Amino acid sequence: MLDFTKAAFRKLVEISLWINLIVYVVAGGVIGWNGGHDVGIGRELAALLCVIIGALVGMLTNILFGGFIATIIAIEENTKLK
After folding, report:
1. Whole-structure pTM value
2. Closest residue by Cα to residue 63 from 75, 74, 71
3. Confidence check: pLDDT of 20 > 90
């Protein structure tokens, strides 16, 4: 049962990291589209640039939180009773 719980937790973490990345990319696109006419570069280019920035920020947060979760899983596996 513990192995099933561990596998389910890992899949849940994996799915949540992908959702996090998608949310950052979509938010970047929306922000760029709505703010593009204010900076004078056009909506399409501003949306594209903000999507790229959103993807980079999303990847950085995934690396940060994924690293924390991987550390927690590694600590749990190292302290397992034999």
Report:
1. 0.76
2. 71
3. yes
Dihedral sign for Cα atoms in the order 8, 13, 17, 23: positive
**52 Cβ contact partners less than 8 Å away, ≥ 6 residues apart:** 28
Q: How many CA atoms lie within 13 A of 39 on its CB side?
A: 15
Band of pLDDT at residue 66, cut at 50, 70 and 90: confident
Cβ(76)–Cβ(9) below 8 Å: no
Q: Distance between CA 24 and CA 54 in Å, rounded? A: 5
Which residue bears the tokens 């570069």?
41
Structure tokens at 70: 């991987």
Is pLDDT larger for residue 53 or for residue 38? 53
What is the Cα–Cα distance from 59 to 28, expressed in whole angstroms? 13
Q: Is the pLDDT of residue 82 over 60?
A: no
